[in-house]
Amino acid sequence: MPKHIAVVPGDGAGKEVVPEAVKVLGAVGVELELEDFDIGADRYLATGVALDDATFEQLKAADAVLFGAVGDPRVDEHYAASVLLRMRFEMDLWANLRPARLYDARLSPLRDEKLREVDLLVVRENTEGIYVGAGGRFKKGTPDEVAIQEDVNTYKGVNRILEHAFTRARREVCMVDKSNAMGHAGGLWQSRWKALAPAHPGLATRHLYCDACTMELVRDPSQFDVIVSGNLFGDLLSDLSAQLIGGMGIAPSANVNPDNGKGLFEPVHGSAPKLAGRGIVNPLGAILSAGMMLSHLGFQAEAETIENAVVAAIRAGECTRDIGGDLSTAAAGDAVVKHLKGT
């Protein structure tokens, strides 16, 4: 029985890049059952509901969700959170996987070619931290206003993301926190790290504070294998990692629950309203996210075929202008299909 995939283009750039990912999936030869869902700002503005319960249940029932982006300048930031964060939190997609692999040396902003061998994975805790929205604003709009944003960390959440990071590593796991400034949250991360790391003697382990890790990523990103961190720091470090390999346009991601196999796969560039609708958005992040989805579903060979086709297109200069080409979004998708078929 074919895997059932919920396809959610969403808003802006998502509407342009997801069709290219679907195009590549159709060419790779895996039998999938794709179902399109209209979830976006247009529907929200028309109905007042971003993601209704019945639709959400359908998304939860799918084997995986292929997602584009949410976000629209016509609505406030709570709209996007009510879609994407709801799926992450209520589907308990607690591991956000953000690989960063340099496919062509010309895409690196680093001048020393010895440092350009970037092949790392950021494993980000995805359902806790400051993104839970705990806190508030008191005496809002007055000179005495107080704003509080709470960083929520649980034993279960920290423990499972650290354990999962070890399953993804080839040679080393680097845990990143800011425990020297955040003694309570950082203290929990430190205690679980010290308890778990010795149970994996076959892997090197180390700890860095977040500010030190950002410096090390710029100084020599080739040193890293797996970086594991909380929701906020993982977000920052993964975006920096993406810039080291050519930018957000080619950065894929997976939001997964390793316990039950559910997953949502999306490019990380967002809806990009200033670029959307012009046919210039890079589809490679979405295409690589679709490849991550196939790998997650057990189609490892086909996932590698997609990645190889993306690499071939990049090295041939058959890509969008943000990474040195001159192709449109659709033409860049066609180029990947061409290399996929070896023509």
Please give a handful of descriptors for the protein shown.
2 domains; single chain; alpha/beta; two-stranded antiparallel ribbon; 343 residues; 10-stranded mixed β-sheet; Isopropylmalate Dehydrogenase; globular
Radius of gyration: 20 Å
| Uncertain parts | none
CATH architecture of the largest domain: 3-Layer(aba) Sandwich
Q: Report the sheet with the most strands, covering strand number, pairing sense and barrel closure.
A: 10 strands, mixed
Structural class comes to: alpha/beta
Strand content: 15-25%
Q: How many structural domains?
A: 2
Order of helices and strands: EHEHHEHEEEEHEHEHEHEEHHH
* CATH class type of the largest domain: Alpha Beta
Molecular shape:
globular
Structure summary, number of beta strands: 12
Question: What topology emerges from the helices and strands here?
Answer:
Elements: E1 3-10, H1 13-28, E2 32-36, H2 41-47, H3 53-61, E3 64-69, H4 77-90, E4 95-101, E5 119-125, E6 135-138, E7 146-149, H5 155-168, E8 172-177, H6 183-196, E9 204-209, H7 210-219, E10 226-229, H8 231-243, E11 252-256, E12 263-267, H9 284-296, H10 300-315, H11 329-341
Parallel strand pairs: 1-2, 1-3, 3-12, 5-10, 8-9, 8-10
Antiparallel strand pairs: 4-5, 4-11, 6-7, 11-12
Helix pairs in contact: 1-9, 1-11, 5-6, 7-8, 9-10, 10-11
